Amino acid sequence: MNKRKNSAAKKSGIKRKQSNKFHSNKQSTPTTHKSNKSQGKNLTNNKRGRSKKTITAEVTCTGLTKSGKGIINWEGKQLEIEHLLPGETAEITVSTSGKQVDAALKRVITTSENRVKPMCSYYYECGGCQLQHMNEQAQKHFKQETIEKLMKPFGKPEPILTMDHPYDYRNKSHTTFGLNKDRQIIGGLYAQNSHQLISMDRCLIHDPKADEIWQTIKGMMKSFKIQPYNEDTGQGFLRHVLVKVGKVSGEIMVVLVVASPVFKGKNNFVKALRKAHPEITTILMNVNNRKTSMVLGDQEKVLFGKGTITDTLCGLKFDISAKSFYQINPIQTEKLYAKAIEMAKLSGKETVIDAYCGIGTIGLIASQKAGKVIGVELNKDAVRDAIRNSKRNGVKNARFYQGDAGEFMVEMAARGEKADVVIMDPPRSGSDEAFLSSVVKLKPKRVIYVSCNPETQVRDMKYLTKNGYEVKGIQPVDMFPQTVHVETVAEMVLKGV
Ligand code: SAH
């Protein structure tokens, strides 16, 4: 799952981020650099009056960090350089101010055979993808190695399950609008970890239809006198457009996230949008009038259609609403869920807990092979969807509850209830001690841990392995090609049963 969020770091105005551009020259003559050499020095004063020294150096990249940056060793320090690959030599600038050392790529001198020209023309500005300069084989190797290093205490992971066409996969996208310096409306994505809007017409990992739709909306804004919302001044109306696409059903949801409930001309706007895109099956207005980096606000109004879309996953149909979590790469999700269910080794009798269940996907798929399923989830819209999904698929042996998964498990343990299998899929922050200690008390025979953040997963797996469980299998799945993110599912069993 991708629970990626842009950080709330705010910067004023809509400027283009200074790109870390360079020209990779595949034909450049390889040079052999035994050591990293400093070439030139330049002294300036920074704002605090501390002297800032900038030098140019020639370096060799020795490896990659877990966030995909190139590692170089410079004067005994390990520095990270974005977009540099192992084995490559490069010219970099190193700026030192006190203890602060910043390094930036100037020019790649000898290029790696794994380097490719990124397909996306915004790649070096955007930062939403971090690995587009690597070929597919190198991306696969990088992800496999990252997971192997992290999971070392538990054994060797299986080879990562990759995607045949690693683009166009995101079934959910949100776009933001703004004005450029000529006061023309622009739309696109925020650069990673910033509030700088990058004007773009296509994101190559989005579903292409979603990009077509928000482009249409951008084109309609002027004639409907809709101003983009400005986060600094609080002026303007349209904050974001969220598009969700059912990859199998073809159903499309458009959510207009606006700053005020008064939407003048909304009926005509909806009519015009539907005329341009008859494939849209539902349109919602979501009012977000808070100063927040969260995309969605609390108030929601359906302007057209049923307010949800339906999609099919592993043979079951799921209703998805604007706010509930749904895996963003359904092709890879089917592989992930199939693996998780296989690891659960269900015989038809077991009581299965689907913790952090979202709209009930894993639990409902597991229910076909289990005695009963108990799902728990914090988001009330998602629980409502899970209950609806259970009915829609004629599932009779699943119950869903709204609440904190940790508290729910503590109560279950206190009541002395039993569970045979716990399938858990927490957010990036991982699980918590309340949850994990209750798992240990409930003593399910199997714990299947699905995670989009292997670091918190390793932390939680350490807790479980110290408290009676052993790891039987680890399967990484590439749910987010072109980015550094990896999804992993781990199978743990209670020792001695
Ligand atoms: N298993 C689902 C959802 C996984 S995403 C799927 O595969 O689609 C993680 C989910 O955990 C989200 O739906 C989020 O709302 C939920 N969540 C976050 N914190 C929680 C908590 N403390 N207790 C229960 N659910 C929580």
From TrEMBL:
PANTHER family according to UniProt: RNA M5U METHYLTRANSFERASE, TRNA (URACIL(54)-C(5))-METHYLTRANSFERASE
MF (Gene Ontology): 4 iron, 4 sulfur cluster binding; rRNA (uridine-C5-)-methyltransferase activity
UniProt-listed Pfam families: tRNA_U5-meth_tr
Matches recorded under InterPro entries: MeTrfase_TrmA_AS, MeTrfase_TrmA_CS, NA-bd_OB-fold, SAM-dependent_MTases_sf, U5_MeTrfase_fam
Residue ranges, annotated region (Disordered): 1-56
UniProt-recorded name of the protein: 23S rRNA (Uracil1939-C5)-methyltransferase
Biased composition (Polar residues): 25-46
Organism classification: Bacteria, Bacillati, Bacillota, Bacilli, Bacillales
GO biological process terms held by the UniProt record: rRNA base methylation
